[in-house]
Design brief:
Distance between the termini: 52 Å
Radius of gyration: 19 Å
Number of strands: 0
Shape: globular
Helix content: over 70%
Order of helices and strands: HHHHHHHHHHH
Amino acid sequence: MSKLINKFKVLLVMIRPLSAFINSLVVMFAIFFIGTENDINTTILGGMAWLFISFANEIIKEYYETLKLKLNFPGNVLSKEIISPFEAMAYYTYFTLSAILLSTFIGTFPMFLAVFVTLFNKYSSKSCRKNPYRFPFSRGIIAAIMILYSGIEAGNANSLMFPAALFCIFTYIINYLDYSRYYEKITDKDAKSFLSALIPGFLLISLYPYLQGVYKFDYLTIIMLTANLCLIFTLLKIFKGYRKSNVSALVVTLRLNLLTIIIAVYAGLK
């Protein structure tokens, strides 16, 4: 019994439930509130599908990190050998097939998107993981697809094209902050220079739809007081004295703000 409990604990760490649940909430919020149909069944199916996609993505990422690329990052649990590689791939297969099946109930195109995301994440985990710039960008692409997936399910994909771009850049920033600290080749100075260019870029782009009259003032208020405020704080911290090793709390805070971006879009549209 204790062995099963230990396996469950390790699996829980491996699937990164906080990040997965945030992704699921973003998808459900986008489908139900920004969509044209407001269908509760589609909302639940979409949220569950993306929850399983997120679980599968984290498992395959750690599988390649630990067992194939021999990258011993903090927080990786496969190296403890409580869960075998075979069991890890079995969980990955289960979550992947469950996500595809749930997406099939919604429509053909969402099913193809679910297949594409899982294949793309497997490729990026295998081919881009040693690169601290390419891998965060691949996660950004997946975040953008997540928003487009929501829009297609909700029957209102056009209104989520710009939010998809915002999610791509914001997720890139989060993952660069999170993963660059584990790469010895990336110095504090390198990370500071890169983020000092990337963050102001996001801040300027986030203002564009309001300045163009696409979103109302409510959008500007919410995004400035949440996601943008966190990024401004990050920027100030960078100029004050950035240290790669001291960003854990900041990464969690930024992940929580993924939900506020989609709420800002909703408020700006209504």
